[in-house]
């Protein structure tokens, strides 16, 4: 592809909220007839939506910014997202082509001014691709202040998108072939009217086939929410049978040190209620190992709890110190111990994921076809339980719903 001075490429790090926000920037730029490049190397304007949730995420962002700034076609690297809020000076010092713009709404104006100085006019070559599973941002910000987390400082107080706007957006997506809307937020359950009320409106006023939640805190998993997973007659519920609920630790002592808002018993009670409402629901989670002060016994309790619950999927994170958080003042553990614990837990969660997959063998699964690989003769997609599976391709098309079972 020829490089034009005004072609842009957006690179996104981090969570689904960042993905949605990048999509919004993309929509604004394409609405202003700017050209979307196929790869970063083809673009002169690079926009990097950053994540600062761990020190490792910060390191990756810096490395990528340096690399992108050195590419021959790069005129400017615009940095936005959480790192832009917290690390403006440090990032701009990395390279003179780097420009930090924390307010995403100002990016398109900046690019337009920049492009005008190049004397470019923008051909309209951007065609939006139809997407089958689409994240929809409904909430931003968090006021929980978990002791290890920088997000409340980067994102600020909770805000909610109006339910009128969400319903309109989801209906527009449904009309263009989207089958699954993934409601995303930083602390989704803090949605102003509550997620169940929002789901009722989506159910009544849109034609979307199914909805998934990106992540939800244990205290927000209510019976009203779980009711949306249940079959109505022979029709599956609006809400996919999958909830991502961050556990973080299986030790009450560490949970309280982390300023999490629940005990191990509270978490177990939530799991029990989900399984009563929907026995085959997939529950996924995040666990942090090596939080300062985590003793051998605290870790053993975490390992045992994880084994007992049997998560369908779990992300194991090694504790990462973030400057500015309460936990940054605490003495870190020996990294070798943390590494060993992370490996031990990873082995457990890998076994549990296989166990969950086994438990779904021979049962009917419903998958939305998202992609077709003609060379391999396969289709791939996501089931209601968030299993990413591949099947033989016959005559299906993206967006089709297929029902099948994997052999026992
Ligand atoms: S709930 Fe805790 S971990 Fe999640 S964003 Fe808020 S402060 Fe961070």
> What oligomeric assembly is this protein in?
single chain
Which bin fits the share of residues in helices?
A: 25-40%
Strand order of the largest sheet: 1-2-3-4
Order of helices and strands: EHEHEHHEHEEHEHEHEHEHHEHEHEEEE
Structural class from helices and strands?
alpha/beta
Largest β sheet strand count, sense and barrel closure: 4 strands, parallel
Helix tally equals 13
Number of strands: 16
Give the arrangement of secondary structure elements.
Layout: E1 8-12, H1 16-31, E2 45-50, H2 55-70, E3 76-81, H3 82-86, H4 88-92, E4 98-100, H5 107-118, E5 133-137, E6 139-140, H6 151-155, E7 159-160, H7 163-175, E8 180-184, H8 195-205, E9 210-213, H9 223-226, E10 242-244, H10 252-257, H11 264-277, E11 282-289, H12 296-309, E12 313-318, H13 335-360, E13 365-373, E14 378-383, E15 388-392, E16 401-404
Parallel strand pairs: 1-2, 2-3, 3-4, 5-8, 8-9, 10-11, 11-12
Antiparallel strand pairs: 6-7, 13-14, 13-16, 14-15
Helix pairs in contact: 7-8, 12-13
The structure holds iron/sulfur cluster (SF4).
Molecular structure report:
By secondary structure, the chain is α/β, with parallel strands linked by helices. Helices cover 36% and strands 19% of the residues. The protein is built from 13 helices and 16 strands. The strands form 5 sheets. The chain has a 4-stranded parallel beta sheet, sandwiched between helices. Strands 15-14-13-16 form a 4-stranded antiparallel beta sheet, with no helix packed on it. The protein has a 3-stranded parallel beta sheet with strand order 5-8-9, with helices on both faces. Strand 8 (180-184), helix 8 (195-205) and strand 9 (210-213) form a beta-alpha-beta unit. The chain is globular. Residues 1-5 and 119-129 have low confidence and may be disordered. Bound molecules: iron/sulfur cluster.
């Amino acid at each position: 592809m020829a490089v034009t001075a005004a072609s842009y490429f957006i690179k996104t790090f981090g969570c689904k909220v960042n993905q949605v926000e990048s999509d919004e920037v993309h929509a604004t730029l394409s609405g202003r007839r700017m050209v979307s490049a196929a790869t970063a190397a083809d673009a002169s304007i690079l926009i990097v939506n950053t994540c600062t949730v761990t020190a490792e995420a910060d390191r990756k962002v810096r490395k990528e910014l340096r690399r992108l700034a050195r590419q021959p076609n790069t005129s400017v690297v615009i940095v936005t997202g959480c790192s832009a809020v917290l690390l403006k000076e440090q990032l701009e010092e990395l390279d003179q082509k780097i420009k930090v713009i924390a307010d995403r709404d100002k990016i398109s104006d900046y690019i337009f001014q920049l492009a005008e100085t190049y004397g470019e006019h923008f051909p309209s070559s951007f065609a939006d691709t139809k997407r089958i599973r689409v994240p929809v941002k409904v909430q931003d910000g968090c006021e929980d202040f978990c002791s290890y987390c920088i997000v409340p400082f980067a994102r600020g107080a909770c805000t909610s998108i109006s339910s009128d706007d969400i319903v309109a957006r989801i209906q527009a997506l449904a009309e263009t072939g989207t089958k699954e809307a993934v409601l995303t937020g930083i602390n989704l359950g803090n949605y102003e009217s509550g997620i169940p009320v929002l789901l009722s409106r989506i159910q009544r006023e849109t034609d979307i086939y199914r909805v998934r939640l990106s992540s939800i805190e244990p205290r927000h998993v209510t019976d009203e929410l779980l009711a949306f997973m249940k079959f109505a007659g022979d029709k599956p519920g609006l809400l996919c049978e999958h909830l991502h609920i961050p556990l973080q630790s299986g030790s009450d002592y560490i949970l309280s040190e982390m300023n999490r808002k629940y005990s191990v018993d509270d978490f177990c009670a939530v799991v029990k209620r989900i399984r009563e409402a929907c026995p085959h629901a997939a529950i996924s989670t995040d666990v942090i190992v090596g939080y300062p002060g985590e003793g051998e016994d605290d870790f053993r309790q975490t390992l045992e709890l994880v084994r007992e619950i049997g998560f369908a999927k779990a992300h194991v994170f090694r504790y990462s110190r973030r400057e500015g958080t309460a936990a940054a003042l605490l003495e870190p553990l020996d990294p070798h111990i943390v590494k060993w614990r992370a490996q031990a837990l990873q082995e457990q969660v890998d076994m549990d994921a296989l166990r969950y997959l086994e438990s779904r063998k021979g049962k009917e699964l419903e998958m939305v076809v998202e992609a077709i690989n003609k060379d391999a003769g396969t289709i791939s997609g996501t089931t209601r339980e968030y299993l990413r599976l591949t099947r033989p391709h016959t005559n299906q098309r993206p967006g089709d719903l297929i029902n099948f079972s994997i052999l026992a």
